[in-house]
Design brief:
The protein has 379 residues and is an alpha/beta fold. Helix content is 41%, strand content 22%. The protein is globular, with a radius of gyration of 21 Å. Bound molecules: iron/sulfur cluster (SF4).
């Protein structure tokens, strides 16, 4: 092992977690309010090439001060990162890892890449593996083709199964499947079938999200309404079902087999530092939250940043609580938090929503069901 790298590892000199955003999708889903742009097949190569060049300019702008250090985790999300071609995937990782002196990607504990089934091929998966990607996150959302159509997804269940099986054959041993519940028209039985379909494949990690109808989405424009009671029933069912099938809930929406919890996301929930690159990406360094522009033209022209927010100690504590309580292991309560929030914490304990164990504050089972109400108390 190279001496510099060895010293860096021994000294624990890691750069924070790194997030890279790829904002292109084949089609905008009906519920999507992420920073993503629909892009036609014939324009993908050209647009993605331009975008990757801008990304490398952002790497050059922000990474030199961290040369020779290794990221603790890397997460390539979107959008649809799997829309990138094989050569674009290579280009992205080559450019990124150039900043980490004589790196070996196998030293980075977790490199995640998000995929959508319609845009992945065996060859792209092999390329990801060659570049050290050791965790895949696949957007399945439902095991029902009618629901996938309703959501505006491009893939069907068959596409997903082909993608999952190919990834396994190529040797990916840490796969997350994303699922959505609380979809108008979806029954509890239908949700059960989706969960059952997922666990039968034996993925290491499952994320479940309640559909939200956000302003600016097709669902919002169409006035789609949700039923909160069905939503709660589906969530409660999923917690029980996944637990019975060996998936431990470590965060409000996330379930994993032992030791397959997502390291990158745990860092977010612990309010750790991270660097975000790409359109709309957010970084959190030394108490400052830096948000990149969401305007693609500005980004391509090298105008990366749009907002910088300084956190005062009180905002930081309230953020620590709202993020840390998402983890089922809870968060250690500092004297400052006790002093500042004791009345609110006590009220929530009296309502049976929070509990304290060995100086850790946690949501109770009831608190998990009403997590948003608990978080509002700390705003
Ligand atoms: S694939 Fe994901 S990011 Fe792209 S439009 Fe659909 S929900 Fe949004």
């Amino acid at each position: 092992m190279n001496a510099d790298r060895k010293n860096n590892i021994e000294a624990g000199r890691l750069v924070p977690a790194i997030y890279i955003h790829i904002p292109f999708c084949r089609k905008k889903c009906n519920y999507c309010d992420f920073v993503s742009t629909q892009i036609d097949a014939d324009k993908t190569t050209d647009c993605a090439d331009k975008y990757l060049k801008a990304l490398t300019r952002e790497f050059a702008y922000r990474l030199p001060s961290t040369v020779y250090r290794l990221p603790s985790t890397v997460y390539v999300g979107g959008g649809t990162p799997s829309l990138l071609s094989e050569s674009q995937i290579k280009f992205l990782f080559e450019k990124l890892f150039n900043y980490f002196h004589n790196y070996e990607s196998s030293i980075i504990p977790e490199i995640t890449f998000e995929l959508n089934p319609e845009s992945i091929t065996g060859q792209k998966l092999k390329t990801l593996k060659d570049y050290g990607v050791n965790r895949l996150s696949i957007g399945l959302q439902s095991f029902d083709d009618d629901i996938l159509k309703f959501l505006g997804r491009v893939h069907n269940v068959k596409d997903f199964l082909r993608c999952y099986e190919t990834a396994r054959k190529i040797g990916f041993m840490n796969i997350n499947i994303d699922l959505i519940f609380g979809i108008p028209g979806q029954t509890l039985e239908n949700w059960h079938r989706t969960l059952n379909g997922a666990i039968k494949l034996n993925p290491e990690h499952i994320s479940i999200y309640s559909l939200t109808i956000e302003n600016g989405t097709k669902f919002f424009e169409n006035g789609l309404q949700k039923d909160d009671d069905t939503d709660a029933d589906m969530y409660e069912f999923a917690i029980r079902f996944l637990k019975e099938n060996g998936y431990h809930q470590y965060e409000i929406s996330n379930f994993a087999k032992p030791s397959f919890e997502c390291k990158h996301n745990i860092n977010y929930w612990k309010n750790g530092e991270y660097l975000g690159f790409g359109l709309g990406a957010v970084s959190y360094i030394k108490g400052r939250r830096i948000k990149n522009t969401e305007n693609l033209t500005d980004y391509l022209n090298g105008k990366f940043r749009s907002e910088v927010e300084e956190r005062n100690p009180e905002q930081k504590m309230s953020e620590d609580l709202m993020l840390g309580l998402r983890l089922t292991s809870g968060m250690e309560i500092s004297d400052n938090i006790k002093e500042k929030f004791s009345a609110r914490i006590n009220n929530l304990k009296n309502d049976g929503l929070l509990k304290e164990q060995n100086n850790f504050l946690k949501l109770t089972d009831k608190g998990i069901m009403f997590a948003n109400c608990v978080f509002r108390e700390f705003l």
